[in-house]
Amino acid sequence: PDVAVICEGFPDALTVAHTGLAAVAVLGTAHAGPGSAEALTGRIIARFPEVTTFIVCFDDDTATASGKLPAGQNAAASLADQLAHQGRLILNIMPPVGVKDLNAWWQHHPDDLHRTLTATSDHFTARIPAANLPETPVWHMPSLAT
């Protein structure tokens, strides 16, 4: 009850539900970007007031040739920042290298996804909120390629 996963789209949210965690589906990363993140944060907190920890896991849209983060990752960072400023602990994770999103991760490595989300949830549930941190870290899962 203290942790929810924020992801892109209904398929990813349904995937999260398979792990037993609460899920928030963002329908289009524009809704989480700099111009919308504050309003979305208010709606998320109103819906999940008891949640102290959010795991943000948007799709792994590969970086552009310019080296800039894609719009989805920028949106994830904006949303994570807004939630952190509301005293919530945030972990912004990415699917493993070569896996596009949570649903694909579940399709290819269901036990790994379940283990990662639930272990992350268990580990961060009792931590201090991230409001005093200078920025929200991004954790990249190691490649699952054999």
Question: What layout of secondary structure does this protein have?
Answer:
Layout: E1 3-8, H1 10-17, E2 22-26, H2 37-47, E3 53-57, H3 71-85, E4 89-94, H4 102-108, H5 110-124, E5 138-140
Parallel strand pairs: 1-2, 1-3, 3-4, 4-5
Helix pairs in contact: 2-3, 4-5
Could you explain the architecture of this structure?
The longest helix has 15 residues, at 71-85. It is globular, with a radius of gyration of 14 Å. α1 links the parallel β1 and β2 (22-26). Helices cover 38% and strands 17% of the residues. The chain has helices at residues 10-17, 37-47, 71-85, 102-108, 110-124, and strands at residues 3-8, 22-26, 53-57, 89-94, 138-140. The N and C termini lie far apart (35 Å). It has a five-stranded parallel beta sheet, with helices on both faces. Mean pLDDT is 80; it is low at 126-134 and 136-146. The protein contains five helices and five strands; from the N terminus they run βαβαβαβααβ. By secondary structure, the chain is of the alpha/beta class.
Query: Mind describing the biggest β-sheet?
Result: 5 strands, parallel
Ranges where pLDDT stays below 50 over 5 or more residues in a row are 126-134, 136-146
The helix-strand sequence is: EHEHEHEHHE
Termini Cα gap: 35 Å
- Number of separate helices: 5
Helix content: 25-40%
Share of residues in strands: 15-25%
* Total strand segments: 5
Specify the structural class. alpha/beta
Brief summary:
It is built from 5 helices and 5 strands; from the N terminus they run βαβαβαβααβ. The protein is α/β, with parallel strands linked by helices and 146 residues long.
